[in-house]
Amino acid sequence: MVTHDSNTQHISAQFDHELEEIKARMLEMGGMVEQQVSSAVHSLVEKDPDQAERVVSRDHDVNMLEVEIDDDCSRILARRQPTASDLRLVLAISKAISDLERIGDEAAKIARQSITLCEEGASPSGYVELRHIGNHVAGMVHDALDAFARLDVDMAIQVAKEDSQVDKEYGSAMRSLMTYMVEDPRVIGSVLKEMWALRALERVGDHACNIAEYVIYLVKGLDVRHLEISDLIAQLEEK
Hints:
The protein has helices spanning 4-45, 49-80, 84-120, 128-150, 153-183, 188-220, 229-238. It is mostly helical. The protein has one domain: Up-down Bundle (Methane Monooxygenase Hydroxylase, Chain G, domain 1). Keywords: Cytoplasm, Phosphate transport, Transport.
């Protein structure tokens, strides 16, 4: 005989499984876009158009995965009507996959610049700043996803701090590239393409920071979007 309590436990176990499944799929998508960013940067720095083409072609896979996970989130919201922490988890995943899809878009933009630069010739900068910032933001994406997987608020805060550093590195790199264009107008075309790639990387850092903020929302129930890092830490200490 199936009792009311055993039936409730069965439904609860099914729900927990569904939540773990969409979280696992979000992290799978995250791993995919993290690789997309690294491959796009590598294709540009190492002048590898074939790798760049693969990045562009895989962007469709990232887009389709976002649609599938978003459908799963909508279905859970409609059928299970989650509350409290379960609701925050579904909402955080729904928001995170949107940022992950945009990271994939930025990686594809970098790859397209890579293909063009491979045809036109290298930038005079040697892509030093681009390699450095590329490694930095790829690490941020990795750490943001790790923080989500572990529900690690401290790691999420560190990712938010890293975003400020990336912004500074981006500003410095842009000033350096401007110097090349002033000194030799013949390189303006290639340097502009590198600038567009750097801009895409800076946006990747922004999206990684967003995912870190969703971790804080998920664990603490605080919406810390648009806060300065000092204000964010102060709010968490009050909580």
